[in-house]
Design a protein that fits this description.
- This protein is of the alpha/beta class and 413 residues long.
- It has 13 helices and 17 strands.
- The strands form 5 sheets. It has a 7-stranded mixed β-sheet with strand order 4-10-9-8-7-5-6, sandwiched between helices. Strands 13-14-17-16 form a 4-stranded antiparallel β-sheet, covered by helices on one side. The chain has a two-stranded antiparallel ribbon with strand order 1-2.
- Helix 10 runs parallel beside helix 13.
Length: 413
Amino acid sequence: MSPAEIAAIRKDFPVLARTVRNGKPVAYLDSGATSQRPEKVWRAEENFVLSTNAPVHRGAYQLAEEATDAYEHARQTIARFVGADDEEIAFTSGATAALNEIAYLLGDDRSGDLTVGAGDTIVVTQLEHHANLVPWQELARRTGAKLTWFSVTDDGRIDTDSIELDESVKVVAFTHQSNVTGAVTDVRAMVAKAKKVGAVTVLDACQSVPHQPVDFHELDVDFAAFSGHKMCGPTGVGVFYGKKEHLRVLPPFLTGGSMVELVHMDHTTYAEPPQRFEAGTQMTSQVVGLGAACDYLSAIGMDTIAAREKELTGYALESLSAIAGLTILGPATTAQRGSAISFNVEGIHPHDLGQVLDDDGVCIRVGHHCAWPVHRAMCVQATARASLYLYNTEEEIDRLARAIERARSFFAR
């Protein structure tokens, strides 16, 4: 991207022009938690609410037809963005809800050959966000299945040699890109391992879909989840992806209106996917907003965004590595690495560091980032994390480095 293109992108995000802490310009380096939203996304939601708001898949009047068209058009846009068919994505309140839904359904005895039961094995990794770990712990508890995991390498990647998969493995769930170490997983290699033993794969794509081209069909994963608020979209909306042959077999998770075919007093038959998995009134304006976010990112180009973030990440790794006493968790280069950079500064607790940086208008995440196990595996209690996105600049990274140096001087007194 040229400087003019970067400046134009930044103008799309009004919040980036804000000042904080007595007039300091904000440097937002926490997009791995929640990204900022461009005005175009807000306007798409606003236009829907102010001119088209009505229940979808319910009314025969014009407003309801327009609302349904907008909702389903957004589904088409979002599906195309991740290389899926329209009927393969269902909307949820977020990725956490989607991953919980997948785990719950795989424990339902109506799920046919996909059903997880006693004697089966569920495999995860130590890199996982709690949202792709705790649901599997619960599934193991409910069904009597065994839970095991791949450990991590010294540079924060999945150690694929740490365990051997056998025929008892029913599910392999793993992250596409770590929200702590930034490591990007070789998805095809993991899928091949799972297929070899007849297991299904579940991909946490929250940190990959916003930052790089992702095609679920090409990756050949069985299930996946991602959220809207990390990819310039609204909060309160996420996506549950499943191969159509799986979704046709799975029972519903929530029941009620909209997801039924016929209802009798003693039994009910269910609608075809994806409606089967969208009970009740949906988060319609948020879905429309997520569709607009996909359009926004597509107009820039995901290859372009990935290349720009690689430049920024390389610059940040070099800048931070030059600071005495600073240790980076995760890969030291940009090879197979995303833009989430977690680090510690000797002698400064991450929470204290975060407060000093906040005084300079620099916004980062501190703590365990909803990923305790990987921190324990890498022998740290907590980290500071800067996570970059398409609207960040080298100047903001320079501000981060200067603020860290100021913190070092302050705590060295």
